[in-house]
Amino acid sequence: MTTAFPMLNAPPRASKPRTKALTFLSEVGISLRATEDLLETAHMIIDCAKITDHLGLIERLSEPWLRKKIALYERFGIPVLPGGVPFQIAVLQGVVEEYLKRVRDLGFVGVELSEDVIPPLARAEREDFIGRARSLGLKVTTEVGRKNRDVEFDPQTVKSQILSDVELGVANVYIESSEIQALSQRDAEALDGLAALGGGNVVLFELGLKAPQEKAAWLVERYGPLINFASVSPHDIVAVDAIRVGMHRMAGYHYLSSGVASSVVKSRN
Predict the structure, then answer these.
(1) Alpha carbon of 170 to those of 44, 88, 95, 134, 154: distances in Å?
(2) What is the extent of the structural domain holding 34?
(3) Which of 9, 25, 112, 172 is a Cys-bridge partner for 49, taking CB atoms 3.0 to 4.6 Å apart?
(4) How far apart are CA 185 and CA 172, in angstroms?
(5) pTM of the predicted model, to two decimals?
(6) Is 144 left (phi over 0), alpha (psi -120 to 50) or beta?
(7) CATH number of the domain residue 112 falls in
(8) Which 3 state secondary structure label does DSSP give 34?
């Protein structure tokens, strides 16, 4: 692609498909037209999209509309998942098998099996759900931590859970944004042993709705630009990417002062 200013060197980044420095979009209730507008300018920095209009998925959004939404993302090479709350409702209502098959049949490439609100699942039941989803050809993501923080976040227990999920074939594991918010303020070391699990390719840190750009800046400063982000809103996606590569005020415009900007050489035709 020829950019508008080809004489300027941008911060280096890996091209898609990426295994690190992942950015998972979380989009709530935006129209097809708004989605197309977003993808027109930001598709290069989105690695996966998650539909987190949970109530819409089970009440308002029609099958034809959802298929159009998924196809729109696929046009730009972006896989799509449903958010994790509908799965939790399926657990409570005893229809997990039907739910997983419907996720597959609607065209989603994967499913989020989270338990951040409902009572924690028994280990055998959780592993069974993961196996069922994978047997249907779905890419599985899971989550650790609780939205209401009503269960203690024990780093060693969480680490064991993540490693167990990886052994079961889980592709990515989110760390719940409310846990990150709390731990970053009182016990940041509790997060340190998790970021590099799976070679840094597995764990994603959810930014969520509360101070997401500030959270992104803190995470990049602590763990570097290859950290993986999840639950990034359409409103924040461009700013978060700029923070990652040091081209934002919250990142101190690190790219300009790091020496990389002057050392990157582009071949010019």
Answers:
(1) 25, 17, 21, 9, 21
(2) 23-263
(3) 25
(4) 25
(5) 0.92
(6) beta
(7) 3.20.20.70
(8) helix
Give strand pairing partners of 172.
Answer: 141
Tally the domains of the chain.
Answer: 1
pLDDT values of the chain reduced to their tens digit, one per residue, 269 residues: 788 999 999 998 889 999 999 999 999 889 999 999 999 999 999 999 999 999 999 999 999 999 999 999 999 999 999 999 999 999 999 999 999 999 999 999 999 999 999 999 999 999 999 999 999 999 999 999 888 888 888 888 999 999 999 999 999 999 999 888 888 888 888 888 888 888 889 999 999 888 899 999 999 999 999 999 999 999 999 999 999 999 999 999 999 988 777 765 544 44
Q: In this structure, is residue 146 part of a structural domain?
A: yes
Q: Is residue 194 part of a domain?
A: yes
Query: Is residue 14 domain-resident?
Result: no
Degrees to nearest 5, angle at CA 198 with 192 and 203:
60
Going by the DSSP 8-state scheme, the letter that residue 188 receives in this structure is T
DSSP line for 56-100:
IIIII--HHHHHHHHHHHHHTT--EEE-SHHHHHHHHHT-HHHHH
- Cβ neighbors of 167 (< 8 A, separation 6 or more) are none
Evaluate whether 162 touches 127 at the Cβ level (below 8 Å). no
